[in-house]
Amino acid sequence: MSLALVQSRALLGLHAPAVTVEVHLANGLPSFALVGLADVEVKEARERVRSALQNAGLEFPANKKITVNLAPADLPKDSGRFDLPIALGILAASGQIDAARLDGWEFAGELSLSGLLRPVRGALATSLALRALAQPVRTVLPPGSAEEAALVPGTEIYRAHHLLDVVRQFVPVPPPNDDGADDGGWQRLQPAPPAPATDGPDLADVKGQAAAKRALEIAAAGGHGLLLVGPPGSGKSMLAQRFAGLLPPMGVEQALESAAIASLAGRFSPAQWMQRTTASPHHSCSAIALVGGGSPPRPGEISLAHEGVLFLDEFPEFARSALEALREPLESGRITIARAAQRAEFPARFQLVAAMNPCPCGFAGSHQRACRCTPDQIARYQGKLSGPLLDRIDLHVEVPALPPEELLGAPPGEPSGAVRERVARAHERALQRQGKANQALQGQELEQMAALDAPAARFLQAAAARLAWSARSTHRALKVARTIADLSGCETVGAAHVAEAVQYRRALRAPA
After folding, report:
1. 73 near 37, Cβ under 8 Å?
2. Quick one: CA dihedral 477, 480, 484, 489, positive or negative?
3. Which of 183, 322, 361, 367 is most buried per CB count within 10 Å?
């Protein structure tokens, strides 16, 4: 047979559209043409496939005109994931394997020159796409990628180490162990999620800072964003690094979606399974690195922090364009990257923890050292953060420097495990009431679920009028008050809960 069809999948955001690898062998001047909007990495597959077939002892039809089409032609294809299906297509078209037996199978994998299979990125995203199909599909992947894909329940994943391991399963006379048994290089993987990693840094390491720890607990229970303001060395980074350990446990679907994005970026590791990660990009990163972009579109740090924490240290030092790009994802929990040729959407439900100094020298309002900054310098420094961006951060907390006697003599604080239990109870209370975290409440749903009593409503109205809050700031304070009430086990939001929430909407320290 001179024509063979092999199924594979491309990557477009978190979607994995189907790709048919069509291979045709014809008489004529020997050549190897690869068409179908293939990127440079895909076109280089010609040399990898040729060498892999020859070094594996298989026949490469060098005397034929080989045409490989990746259909549909208008779908961009990148990476080396099409090496294996191209090689199998050539073998099927030349009659070395049974083309009919390839039906119902999909393949992805990069070939080394010796025929060994190398991992490809996005295996989990591909497996999630396959789970949504009405008819189950068997997928063959290299080591590393197959273990990722097998985390998705309801999928049929096979791992192959070498090109010959795959070829043996599709020769005209099937081998006796074609039922998926392990023959050393070919094995069907069963869904077996790795054991969750151990806990990270403990909150007990942070001494003092009771107000900041309370703010972390509230932020974790309600899904709120947090801004820490304080002088250098006051413990802002220590607090932020321990925040992920306070968050409620992840569900399986949340873990799969988070792991799929990490797999898409080539950053997934089994140690991350069911763990909320903390992404902490340097303040010199660009807007594209932070929110995603490129061609084809790739996820940025906010998507890699999906269902986890995005920690932005030295908050005002980030480029203005990068910070302003955070405004829409903070509201919607998604980022849409539109380019002239294509459009991709990535989830970005992260919890923002930002840290900054109150002024350029860092010691404004501190008793630790005298501030050398002028009022104009302080105003200019704090003015790097726009009002609309600060409006979207629910909790603004001051982290003062501790005196030496409190830092060295204080006993260890409350461990993360105890705080995490309270956070989990409050989060579960919110889920039972409204099916989502308090931070996600909007409009009439917020007014209904907040359940303010009369004194609390009057207090909130007076505070909003006196502090000249926007409607968004008022609603944010109401969400925080609802979370404080959940932590207290109260069904209604009282004046005490609103009063505490108002304290967390403080503005940055104005210059004297």
Report:
1. yes
2. positive
3. 322
Q: How many CB atoms lie within 10 A of CB 7?
A: 18
CA angle 496, 498, 502 (to 5 degrees): 120
**Best-predicted range by mean pLDDT among 20-29, 36-45, 498-507?**
20-29
CA 398 to chain CA mean position, Å: 29
Mean pLDDT is lowest, of 100-114, 214-228, 374-388, for 374-388
CB 106 within 8 A of CB 50: no
Would you state the structure tokens that stand for residue 37, as one six-digit string? Answer: 């909007």
Strands 334-338 and 292-293: unpaired
Alpha carbons 334 and 454: distance in angstroms, whole number: 36
Helix axes 443-450, 471-488, angle to 10 degrees: 40
Q: Is the dihedral of CA 75, 79, 80, 84 positive or negative?
A: negative
Q: List, for residues 197-242, the tens digit of each pLDDT value.
A: 566 788 988 888 889 999 999 999 999 999 999 999 888 999 999 9
Burial class for 198, CB neighbours closer than 10 Å (0-12, 13-18, 19+): exposed
- Burial of 203 per CB tally in 10 Å (0-12, 13-18, 19+): buried
